[in-house]
Amino acid sequence: xxxxxxxxxxVLVGYPLARxxxxxxxxxxxxxxxxxxxxxEIPASARAxxxxxxxxxxxxxxxxxxASAGLHLKLLAAAVTAVFPVVWIVLTSIKPRGTWQxxxxxxxxxxxxxxxxxxxxxxxxxxxxxxxxxxSAVTTAIAVFIAATTGYAVSRFRxxxxxxxxxxxxxxxxxxxxxxxxxxxxxxxxxxxxxxxAVPFCAWMLKGYFDTIPIGIxxxxxxxxxxxxxxxxxxxxxxxxxGIAVAAFYAFITAWGEVAFATxxxxxxxxxxxxVGLQQYVGQHKAEWGLLTAASVIISVPATAVFLLVQRxxxxxxxxxGTKQ
Length: 325
Known about the structure:
Elements: H1 3-37, H2 58-93, H3 114-120, H4 123-156, H5 162-172, H6 187-211, H7 215-223, H8 228-239, H9 241-256, H10 260-265, H11 274-277, H12 289-319
Helix pairs in contact: 1-2, 2-12, 3-12, 4-6, 4-9, 5-6, 6-9, 7-8, 9-12
């Protein structure tokens, strides 16, 4: 069983995912546009054909089928491109050490969990994992809180310097990564650096989402005696859960998989995060590909878990605020 078998597995796994994501985004976009222009809020796939349209010609049928076939071929190519490396890494991680040096490419070669056992039993790997969780959790919590309060303030209030503030958040994203590589050799400095990237983007995104929430909800809260922060925390935040979920996911991924800053800042095993620790499996004269791929699979588990927790809100949070009501 060779590389073609891996490609078949990638197609079987990735194509349904790619097609489902495409249909979800298409329906969500149509629903959003339907609310904007006042058409019936039903996806095109579920709408009945117009009564006065007449019979569709054969040429249109052929053109429609060709377009559909082309779309599915593109989705198939995207699925193979996205899933093949992941499948290959997983298969390499369960092969015995040294197998990758053979000239024959095999799908399964006496699968064994030895690589995972060795990685998980390592004390330094556990320390790297703890550092990554700590940095990612703190970055996510602080970034979401600052971005949510900033986005709400800009969405609801008018104050001197509002436009320069939003423009400054946008301009910060234009600076190259190397500008912020300064000597801050601790995990706290790493969190501060990640916040400089996560907060501006999340603030802009949440500002657009807060604009879609009727201001009458804020006014009702004020009538009931709530303070501005109480209105934000008790009324607006629950309604903005999809947008906040997207912001949290972006902040978490920014901190979890970042390499450049962590490599420049952190010195010593006790300060390494997982992204930096993986480099220890590749030496000048030898690379432990079995351990490296096993560690890579383990690193992807928390990111996948966070995605599954927020994936129900991702499409809504990304599309909301894209059009004005």
